[in-house]
Amino acid sequence: MSKPDNYNIHLDVKYPHLELIDIAEVDAANKEKWFNQTLSQVNDSVVRIGIVEGEFHWHKHDNDDEFFFVLEGKLFIDLEDKTIELNPMQGTTITKGVMHRPRAPQKTIMLMVENAGIVPTGD
């Protein structure tokens, strides 16, 4: 699995507990086609924002489930045997070990919830 280096992925927690998280502000500051920022840590998990357009590479997470929830735009998650289409206010959980490829035909804003130790580009 090739892991392109043109993803702008930030694993640092941008907002400490009890601080307002403004998605519109994060979106306005972003200039990248594939941006991922950890917003907050909740116990052993993190909440991340993805502001994406285009395709991610095929990958999997051997030990971690991954939850996607679309706020704006459209996200396709290709699996080996089908494609899940997510529109605004829709989400899905990808089971650990399942090969998948997220792709967005237009600018899409999504939230992801996953284990804090996950490697976003896959195992």
Describe, in plain words, how this protein is organized in 3D.
The protein has one helix at residues 23-29; strands at residues 8-10, 34-42, 45-55, 66-72, 75-79, 83-86, 90-94, 100-115. The N and C termini lie close together (9 Å). It is built from one helix and eight strands. A hairpin with a 3-residue loop joins strand 5 (75-79) and strand 6 (83-86). Strands 1, 2, 3, 4, 5, 6, 7 and 8 form an eight-stranded mixed sheet that branches. By secondary structure, the protein is mainly beta. The mean pLDDT is 93. 20% of the residues are buried.
| Sheet of most strands | 8 strands, mixed
- Specify Rg, calculated over alpha carbons: 14 Å
Oligomer: single chain
Query: In percent terms, what proportion of residues is strand?
Result: over 45%
Roughly what is the average pLDDT, rounded to an integer?
93
Please count the helical segments. Answer: 1
Topology as H/E string? EHEEEEEEE
Query: What structural class should be given to the helix and strand makeup?
Result: mainly beta
What distance separates the N and C termini? 9 Å
List unreliable stretches of 5+ residues.
none
Globally, the shape reads: globular
**Share of residues in helices:** under 10%
Count of DSSP E strands? 8
Give a concise summary:
The protein has 123 residues and is mainly β. It has one helix at 23-29, and strands spanning 8-10, 34-42, 45-55, 66-72, 75-79, 83-86, 90-94, 100-115.
What keywords describe this structure?
single chain; mainly beta; 8-stranded mixed beta sheet; 8 strands; globular
